[in-house]
Specification:
Strand content: 25-35%
Number of helices: 4
Structural class: alpha+beta
Helix content: 25-40%
Pfam families: HATPase_c_2
Distance between the termini: 30 Å
Protein name: Anti-sigma regulatory factor
Largest sheet: 5 strands, antiparallel
CATH class: Alpha Beta
Order of helices and strands: HEHHEEHEE
CATH superfamily: Histidine kinase-like ATPase, C-terminal domain
Number of domains: 1
Length: 131
Amino acid sequence: MNDADVLGIEVIEVQVPVDPAYLAVLRTAAAGLATRLQFSLGEIEDLRIAVDEAAAMLIAGTRRHAPDAELTCRFEVTDDEVRVAVSVPGDGPLLGHDTIPWRVLNALTGTVRAEQSASGTTITLVKTRPA
C-alpha cells in the first residue's frame, strides 16, 4: 500500500511524446476523470481546456530543445478535486504569469503553479469540485 492509497488519492499518470498530436489523449483523460467527480459539463470543459493549454505551453518550449522528450501528465484525484501536474524534462522557458495564457489557466482552474528545475518544468493545476 502506498501513501496515495492511505490518503484516498487515486493517481493516474500518462506519458506522451512532446508532440501536439497527443494533446487529445490528455484532454480525454482530464474529461474522464472530471466526469467521475460529477463535475458539470462546463467544469469538465474548463479542465480539458486548461490541461490542453498547460501541455501546449510546455510542448512549445521543449520541442525545439528536446524533440524526442516525453511529456508526463500526472492526475491525482480525490473526492473533492483533480490535481494535474504536467511536466517535461529540462528547464525550458515558461510564459510570464501576467500573460493571457496564465490568466486563462487561473480562470479555468482556480489554482495554477509553475516550477522549474534542472530536471524539468512542471505546471500544476487544481480544479476543485463545487460544493
